[in-house]
Amino acid sequence: MPPNLTGYYRFVSQKNLEDYLQALNINVALRKIVLLLKPDKEIEHWGDHMVVKTLSTFRNYIMEFEVGVEFEEDLRVVDGRKCQTIVTWEEEQLVCVQKGEVPNRGWRHWMEGDMLHLELTARGAVCKQVFKKIR
Prior knowledge:
mainly beta; 10-stranded antiparallel beta sheet
């Protein structure tokens, strides 16, 4: 049975975010702003229904979905695109595949103790972020 990820998570660290943003063709000015952010994550998880919130002082992004059900995701606030998205469980990892203009795009979340790990992919770039559960 997959873990329940409900909680509020504080940003701890990240690696390779700039390469990931370049792979998404994010302009230089916006990349510089994003690199300064230390976003929090809030996850609400009820059975197969989930809400994943990325919260920052610059911009918030809220993703609401049913696990295993494909939907059109509006990423215009992130990079000006829309894509077909499906989120599934692969053992204890929550895995998102985003099909659209950018190849190999998606992410995966998993827990190690009280640390939430996030791996973001786009084209050949891989960004890793870590968050600590605070409630």
